[in-house]
Design goal:
Helix content: 40-55%
Distance between the termini: 44 Å
Number of strands: 0
Largest sheet: none
Shape: elongated
Strand content: under 5%
Order of helices and strands: HHHHHHH
Number of helices: 7
């Protein structure tokens, strides 16, 4: 069974094409031929040419191997390092009113009447501490986007 085609959004496909072009330029700056590069990366010449063209069907490990040959692998550490969208989503959940928990109705009567270790409701608590965002700042961030 053959591989299925990788479907990327146009913007993402362009990013991969740009990466391939940057790999090609780095190779040329170092005076390495594509044949030498394919040998060092450990792929066929056809696959290496796909890397330089930004082909999405090439495994990410092969792209990383090409970056490693060019001594550019540390650049990969920058990918997804800052996750602004994820932090906004996380903060919005932290700032949302806490959901109320109910005492289970399936507890035996004696257990339901006994003082509970956990309160029946969770109080709304303000978010505080390092990295916390105030409601005003959060709304400002949402309006800015």
């Amino acid at each position: 069974m053959g591989r299925s085609a990788v479907r990327l959004l146009p913007r993402s496909a362009q990013l991969l094409t740009d990466l391939g072009e940057r790999i090609r330029l780095a190779r040329l700056r170092r005076g390495i031929t594509s044949e030498q590069m394919s040998e060092r990366v450990g792929v066929s010449l056809v696959t290496y040419r796909k890397i330089e063209s930004g082909d999405a069907s090439v495994a990410m490990g092969h792209y990383l191997a090409a970056l490693q040959v060019l001594q550019l692998q540390s650049d990969l550490a920058l990918v997804a390092r800052e996750d602004a969208s994820g932090r906004l989503l996380q903060d919005s959940k932290l700032l949302a009113p806490a959901k109320r928990r109910r005492i289970s109705r399936t507890l035996p009567r004696a257990a339901a009447e006994a003082p509970a270790a956990v309160p029946a409701t969770v109080p709304d608590e303000p978010v505080s501490g390092e990295g916390a965002v105030s409601n005003r700042d959060f709304l400002h961030l949402l309006e800015r986007d």
